[in-house]
Design brief:
Elements lengths: L8 E6 L4 E7 L4 E4 L8 H12 L3 E5 L11 H13 L15 H16 L4 E6 L5 H4 L6 E7 L15 H14 L3 E6 L7 H11 L3 E6 L28 H17 L2
Parallel strand pairs: 3-4, 3-5, 5-6, 6-7, 7-8
Antiparallel strand pairs: 1-2, 2-4
């Protein structure tokens, strides 16, 4: 069986509150790839390899789940239940505040930027971590936030999972430093309602690059409906399809902003 972590090296990062394993690969400016439910699965690592191949050092923290384990319906359900009922690091239900684990991600960004250099750090969150990249903008070294199918908070259609202060900081930095964000979703994805994308456009205007895909752009993965833009539902067999164009745009965005 092929080692899904082949080519990656592993280290533990402790910010004084939490310690998590992180896998890294590549050289050049840093990009943090934050996985989706159920965990740091092979599809996330495949996308990370493409970031590394484009001239950046990719960092993949494991925040929940079993690192490297393939996705299944049962594994996904168990991971979701654990996050909802046990993990205090995550804010699932209320808008207007970020998850506590974002502090750990900011600290990781500071360390890897000091080590890797470049113009700054790129960050992508997926699903329940989708909004984390935007909340990380209070860390000055973070310059390229990508929100892939941002699904929190689960109970509010137009809310974002960051505080008013974090949102204001991102808006100030976008204007002062000429920054922007990318957000991606499938149009039919009920986890990412229209109101959330409308809110991003209302807050950031033309500095929010919103990429919306149709169900027909997804591959044949049917364990869940089209949702995971950069991983499970990315149709790699159609290099000129909308999904692959979107994935390449994200990688190029990281290159542009980090100075790779």
């Amino acid at each position: 069986m092929t080692d899904v972590f082949e080519g990656f090296s592993r280290f533990e990062f402790d910010d004084g509150r939490w310690s998590r394993s992180v896998w890294r690969m590549g050289t050049g400016p840093a990009v943090i790839v934050v996985h989706e439910i159920p965990g740091l699965h092979p599809g996330v690592l495949e996308f990370a390899r493409e970031v590394a191949a484009a001239g950046m050092t990719v960092f993949c923290p494991s925040l929940f789940g079993e690192p490297g384990r393939p996705v299944s319906r049962g594994y996904g359900a168990a991971s979701s239940l654990q996050i909802a009922c046990v993990r205090r690091e995550f804010n699932l239900w209320r808008g207007g505040r970020s998850s506590p684990i974002v502090d750990w991600l900011r600290a990781l960004a500071r360390q890897v930027h000091a080590e890797c250099g470049g113009k700054g750090v790129g960050a992508v969150g997926m699903c329940v971590t989708g909004g984390f990249a935007l909340a990380m903008m209070t860390e000055p070294c973070v310059v390229a936030p990508v929100l892939s199918q941002p699904s929190l908070p689960v109970t509010a259609k137009g809310d974002l999972d960051l505080s008013a202060e974090e949102l204001a900081c991102a808006r100030r930095r976008f204007e002062a430093e000429d920054l922007s964000l990318i957000a991606l979703r499938y149009r039919t994805d009920w986890h990412v309602q229209d109101g959330r994308f409308a809110r991003l456009k209302g807050e950031f205007g033309e500095r929010a690059e919103l990429i919306e895909l149709e169900d027909a752009d997804a591959n044949g993965y049917r364990v869940i409906p089209p949702h995971s833009v950069l991983t499970l539902h990315l149709d790699r067999d159609r290099p000129d399809g909308a999904g692959m164009i979107a994935a390449r745009r994200v990688v190029e965005f990281f290159r542009e902003r980090t100075g790779a």
